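Quick board copy: two proteins, each given as sequence then tokens.
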Amino acid sequence: MSAAPDLPLWAALLVSVLIVGGALVTLIGSIGLWRLPDFYARLHAPSLGATLGTGAILIGSMICFSVLRSRPLVHEVLIAVFVTITTPVTLMLLSRASLYRDRVEGRTDVPAEDPEPTEP
């Protein structure tokens, strides 16, 4: 039993565009993870794909269920808040751990230690 036939055409089109667009952005982020040359470049693409793709999918879900129930439903906002908070934090922790590991191993292709602040 599906409620899709009860969805008006304008809402079905909008939800479809948002869901497919979010899936495409997530796919592009995944392809970036596969194609980019090094770890530090690879961190950027999936984090944007996860945040923007998930956001579009959640907006589509909110529109779909709000139209079906004839009242605003915002349960997905909680999911969006968690994704928006945890994705950048995870990105930062992964990059700092990798940078520390690369510095300990003595690799020369990573940035040097944080410079001392200069006085004006």
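And the next:
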Amino acid sequence: MIRFLYLVLLGFCSTAPAASNHTPSRNMSAEAMEVRNMTLEEGDILLAEDRNAVNVVWSDAIVPYEISPEVGFRVSDILAAFRMVSAHTCIRFVEHTDEFNYLVFKQGEGCASFVGVSGGSQPVFLSQACSPGNLAHELIHALGLYHEHTRNDRDNYITVNWSNIIPSKKDNFKVKRGNTLNLPYDLESIMHYGESYFSVDGSPTIVTNQNGKAIGQRDHLSQLDIKKLKTLYRC
């Protein structure tokens, strides 16, 4: 099995049962947070691959999971994230028993997940700043989907303001070739970057070609997010 070793940090941060003392600014998201002892490409991806969706998915659309004791106080948020996905798709999250592949929710400095099935025990990291929507974002990465803004057709829908991007983070905005599941670009996706991600001064790094169209929400799955998961899992 090809092992997909992708580490993707979340989008916006919000309050959680135990509030973080650090509140990111408008141009700072959990995707911009550094993770110690990890070498990252494009700011949030480990071992880049030219794909928008992976081909190794969870068998029968069933995702076993464990919740580590140190994040036991986040159970309600984790279950809420599960519902955001399972309420609209055939994907189901079940408590791990003897399955070889499974997710393990753990404490982390940021919120992070591998993309697709990496094989064996697969961590999903939580910080105190992760909302249920942030966790749903990470679950969708674990299910096999990538950030929307890296699609090869994105220039038809957004304009990247390269001069506003932190120089060392410009690779984060490069187009990736790969499988788009033959579905349209989605400005409303929970997997899309926000307008000021990795900005040098808070000014927009991404501007939509539709005036006034908001991007970067972490509140719900869009209709196209749902359709992409259904297509990927054939349900």
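Board note added afterward: Confidence is low (pLDDT under 50) at residues 1-28, 34-48.
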